[in-house]
Specification:
The longest helix has 14 residues, at about 10-25. Helix content is about 35%, strand content about 30%. The chain folds into 2 domains: about 1-135, Response regulator (Rossmann fold, 3-Layer(aba) Sandwich), CATH 3.40.50; about 155-250, LytTr DNA-binding domain (OB fold (Dihydrolipoamide Acetyltransferase, E2P)), CATH 2.40.50.1020. By secondary structure, the chain is of the alpha/beta class. The protein has helices at about 10-25, 40-50, 65-70, 85-95, 105-120, 125-135, 190-195, 240-250, and strands spanning about 1-5, 30-35, 50-55, 60, 60-65, 75-80, 100, 145-150, 155-160, 160-170, 170-175, 180-185, 200-205, 205-210, 215-220, 220-225, 230. The strands form 5 sheets. Strands 2-1-3-6-7 form a 5-stranded parallel beta sheet, with helices on both faces.
Length: about 250
């Protein structure tokens, strides 16, 4: 059984989550209490030592991130609960941090609790929280790294070192500087949505390239990247690609 607490400043959201936990987690979660602000949440975590924290983003005039900065993230797993916040959700995705959008769905809750149970003893979770806070502390900058799931755990990969991403069924192959490759169990479309704002462009249904690594565009419709690889630009994407690469070079 996993000991958990809720930190949320909206009583009706606390009550809804409590009902979902009772209905859907089949005795896997022991709820130790609920708290409505950062200070009481921090005190409760220190006193009760829960394994899992359901943490709202907006807590009055402070945030769940203020609370997270005061935790030893090696000792707790966090599931954020939030009304949609585009930038925060993007930071969660880069850091591979679990979150639930309000109003919380029971099936989504079950999946998040299972993922939390699987990561309670894994040390790399603390690194993912550190990566999350780095993204949030520099909202105008390019995130330095992205958390990529691997067979061994998680690879915290510098975005600048990603040359291209290639679709392989339900997987994505990341090709990095130095010849390193990572096969990740997520579709290319998911990474396209995440990386397009970071200087990446999907030139072909099977290829997402980092424009910073493009050496040359050939009129025949191919790119040469700085690792020597050659990638086709599909006919229907050529105009958009040329517009993007021209704008980037100005």
């Amino acid at each position: 059984m996993i000991d958990a607490i809720i930190v949320d400043d909206e009583p009706h959201c606390i009550q809804h989550l409590q009902r979902l936990l009772q209905r859907h987690t089949q005795g896997k979660i022991r709820l130790l209490g609920s708290f409505e602000d950062v200070a009481h949440g921090v005190d409760a975590i220190k006193a009760l030592k829960p394994q899992l924290l359901f943490l709202d983003i907006q807590l009055g005039e402070r945030t769940g991130f203020d609370l997270l900065r005061q935790l030893d993230t090696r000792r707790i797993s966090v599931i954020f609960t939030t009304a949609y916040d585009q930038y925060a959700v993007q930071a969660f995705k880069f850091s591979a941090i679990d979150y639930l959008l309000k109003p919380i769905d029971g099936d989504d809750l079950v999946e998040s609790v299972q993922r939390a149970a699987d990561t309670l003893t894994k040390k790399e979770a603390a690194t993912r929280y550190e990566l999350l806070l780095q993204h949030l502390d520099h909202p105008a900058g390019v995130p330095a790294k992205i958390a990529l799931p691997s067979m061994e755990g998680w690879d915290f990969t510098p975005i600048a070192e990603i040359i291209r991403c290639q679709a392989q069924g339900n997987y994505t192959l990341f090709v990095l500087q130095g010849g390193k490759q990572l096969l990740v169990s997520r579709t290319l479309k998911g990474y396209e949505q995440l990386l397009e704002s970071q200087g990446f462009f999907r030139v072909h249904h099977a290829h997402l390239v980092n424009l910073a690594h493009v050496n040359k565009y050939h009129k025949s419709g191919f790119l040469t990247l700085n690792d020597g690889s050659t990638i086709e630009v599909s006919t229907r994407r050529r105009e958009a690609f040329l517009t993007r690469i021209t704008a980037r070079s100005r």
